Amino acid sequence: MRDISVELEHGATGCLDGFVGLALEAIGRLVARRMNGVAELQTVLVNRMVELATGPELGAMDLLFDEFRAAHVPVEEMAPHYIPEAARQIGAAWDSDRIGFAQVTIAISRLQELLHALQTRVTADSVGCANGATVLVVVPPGEQHTLGALIVAMELRRRGVSVRMLFAPGLSDLSRLMATTRFDAALITVGSMDRVEICAKLVKTLSSLTKGRMRVAIGGAIVSQRAEALARTGADLVTNDLSLVISEFSLV
After folding, report:
1. What pTM value is reported for the model?
2. Which of 48, 148, 209, 233 has minimal Cβ neighbours within 10 Å of its Cβ?
3. For the structural domain made of 134-249, what CATH number should be given?
4. Which helix (DSSP H) or strand (DSSP E) does residue 87 occupy?
5. Are 84 and 25 in contact (CB under 8 A)?
6. 33-68 residue pLDDT tens
7. Domain boundaries, the chain
């Protein structure tokens, strides 16, 4: 895969190597759905999402809400299943030179916009259906991949967990937040190989600030490649299986 960075929405930068992690997660979800007897993703909806994300029409992503309803697929399925698969396909298209740099930049930005739109429709925080569990989702300083963290936050909220997101927090940011808010767990998302040391520092800081009370999980695109190194960070759990995190940490 080519070594090039893509400028994302709100000035975030994302290296397309992150699509490897998204691909693995998407495949894992498909396997889990088959094992649980759940219908596979509808190809026509995945293709439509990719088409609108990479197409020329502005604001077209909103059409997906009506199209999902017409296909009798809950819009809540977009974040955990359809958006990761669409991202995987867009990454594969870029890698094989079927779409260009500008097109993939716009496409990922549109997927992020779709996630933001979903959050206004399905969120435990806004509709008052949270079960009391509160989770902190952290994107480490210098981390270039944010789409996965947004998907994780969206899925947690869909399941009734309140979520607070922090992007590139410093020690003072974490100290102030821990002093005013009690979290049941923290999830650190990492997609870059060189962020392992930063993750270890974050785990140590969170443990120190909460006197070891708060459990911490690490997930992201590099979990399969750097599992042993991430396990040595002191995190309670290293996995891309969000259901396992929810179960192990008793969040729902």
Report:
1. 0.66
2. 209
3. 3.40.50.280
4. helix 83-95
5. yes
6. 444 444 578 999 999 999 999 998 888 888 999 999
7. 43-124, 134-249
